[in-house]
Write a structure and sequence with these properties.
about 550 residues; alpha+beta; 8-stranded mixed beta sheet; 18 helices; about 35% helix; globular; FAD-binding dehydrogenase; FAD-dep_OxRdtase_2_FAD-bd
Length: about 550
Amino acid sequence: MPPAPTSHTTDVLVIGWGLAGLVAASEAAAAGKRVVIVDQEPRTNLGGQAWWSFGGLFFVDSPEQRRMGITDSLDLARQDWFGTAGFDRDEDAWPRRWAEAYLQFAHEEKRAWLREKGMGFFPVVGWAERGGYTAMGPGNSVPRFHITWGTGPGVVAPFQAAVEAAESQGRITILGRHRVIALTTSDGTVTGAAGDILSPSGAPRGVVSSRAVVGSFEISAAATIVSSGGIGGNHDLVRASWPPRLGTPPASMLMGVPAYVDGSMLSISEIAGARLINGDRMWHYVEGIQNWDPIWPEHGIRILPGPSSIWLDATGRRLPVPLFPGYDTLGTLAHLRGTGHDHSWFVLSQKIIEKEFTLSGSEQNPDLTGKDVPLLVKSRLGKGAIGPVKAFMDKGADFIVRDTLDELIAGMRALPGGDVLDGDRVRLEVEARDREIDNDFTKDAQIAMLRSARSYRGDKLIRTAAPHRILDPKSGPLIAVKLHVVTRKSLGGIETDLSARALAPSGEPVPGLYAAGEASGFGGGGVHGYRALEGTFLGGCLFSGRTAGRAAADAI
């Protein structure tokens, strides 16, 4: 006979130890409740997906913005958020309320709360998702992307420290290698969870771990919080959820999150009575490159580009206005899915790459992650591409560096799928763009926008190269980068009210069940609507995790 399940009893059960789970657990413990945290991975993965992030956070009218000469307001942020979200469904009722609540949080309490926990922020505010449409269309009207000093690990650190302090005091129990396979219920109330105990694993952070089962467990809890993340590591589920408005799903994608981000708790929560909404809303990037030193399968890294590179589709045609680097992620994804090809291209100069290319991820930014000021000054303000970018130029399968345009085109055509590239079209596009650089009265919208970007001193300092002809030998060598779709975020999930209580299809709360983080669409079942403003994913985990932890504790 199999051994009897190990049993635990607690006040609050938190499923998933990513950022939202750590925040929820720390809040519940601070309220005096006993907490158990479970996760299917080894403890090396504490902090989850957030640990790997660039650490960008969305604030509204922050001191950092004001010091950079940026005028922001709650009204402007609300205009941008709702213009970007495009809420248009009946099930957007709670996401709309979460959006209003989160905007207030980002404008008022969020920064001070994080500062009290010891977090600091890079003084130059980034401008992501610039939009390029009208005032009421998608995009950030002003820079709002605040990089955490320490990147993703710096965001995770204060909450991990709080959880581990409570663990040492016996108020929190952390159970790694515990995979939930069911939420337990009694008369419609969620009473905890049951699942498999997986074999011990010493796998490093992010590396795929064994799924061998060595036992089982049961946990009884007065309140259960699902904070297990989204579906980005499960390409089959991504393709099954892919909406027609984004074209056909790519046959080939890179994975922007570890493989354990598998979406398994969503269906488990639905079986227990929760309503899943907005599953067709998702956030994937089109500037993905193959990691030359991968940690998980199909590991992709996203380029955070400045606005100067020429963006071409697989055949060599330039993307239409305003689908320029850094302007409209989902609009670009939808356009490229209509081309019939899974890749596209950046064409640029050495002068552009050394000023404008940053790679997303804590491990790709050792200066910011390590809080190394001398390295930061040398890498961000010095000559040449920063170290991690240079490594991709030298070793990455998607980078081509050549002295002439003919050589560059030949290198592009030599890569897999490059046979569809029309070299004459590439030359036409690059030469036409370069002619416009010499024209102060250009009709080229991208050139006008990059000149406008340099009116913001943050962009002029570290993010936007001085306008120049890409084919000017003094700006070379020439560089082409093959770009892939890289999966990242689910924008839908478990529907929740403003207390993070999971809701049933009837609209009533499921007793005993809460949800936070990406599993809840970062709040409400989809606080971002169709599109996100960037810097809002970690913030959504912080806000929804805090809400869930406090609400669960108050209800007991």
